[in-house]
Design a protein that fits this description.
Blueprint (H helix, E strand, L loop, with lengths): L4 H4 L3 H8 L3 E5 L4 E12 L27 E6 L3 E7 L8 E11 L1 H8 L11 H7 L16 E4 L11 E4 L13 E4 L9
Antiparallel strand pairs: 1-2, 1-6, 2-5, 2-8, 3-4, 4-5, 7-8
This protein binds a DNA duplex through strand 3, strand 4 and helix 4.
Length: 193
Amino acid sequence: MTVSQPFFDRETTVVARDLLGCHLVHETLEGVLIGKIVETEAYLGASDAASHSFRGITNRTRVMVEPPGKSYIYFTYGMHYCFNVTTAPQGAGGAVLIRAVEPIEGVELMKARRNILDEKNLANGPAKLVVAMGISMDLYGHDLTQKPLYILSRDHFNQPEFEIIESTRVGISQAKELLLRFYIKGNPFISRK
DNA sequence: GACCAGATTGTCT
DNA sequence: GACAATCTGGTCA
């Protein structure tokens, strides 16, 4: 079943943890793409120097102060897009960066989009997952409880129990000591150990 | 495996 | 005008 709005209307770190094991679904014209979320990072907002909303809301970050559960997509390093889910409390500027997914359905389509064959390398990084899942800027601000891009709750598929590892975030220069990165222990599809 | 440089452009100062 | 929540492909081991 799809995740509903109250799921996102909680503290950012809680949402980041609970997203692990959930399934990201994108219904495209070419077919349905599903990836299991195996790695996330929490960006807290005004209290977190590494968050894009730390220095106030701009045209780029405006979706972060709308009601939670929207997609926040940004462009970086001149060539990469990253995909986030906004969280509560509303107005705080919190978001969860989806760092890696495990390809579940539409794997052949993902291989074609990424132009590689190695499944473990299809979506094990924020910019890779955006390409593999066919996400683009037209989905900026999209409500993630609605088609064509939405999230299925953890118990939608039968899956084994897993342990959550906390770690430091990747690729940032501010507040880098905080343990706000979460991933599924032992999963081969995370971006790095 | 680890480490490093280059790509390339939107966004903010 | 500086920098960035990254990836890829190179080198060296």
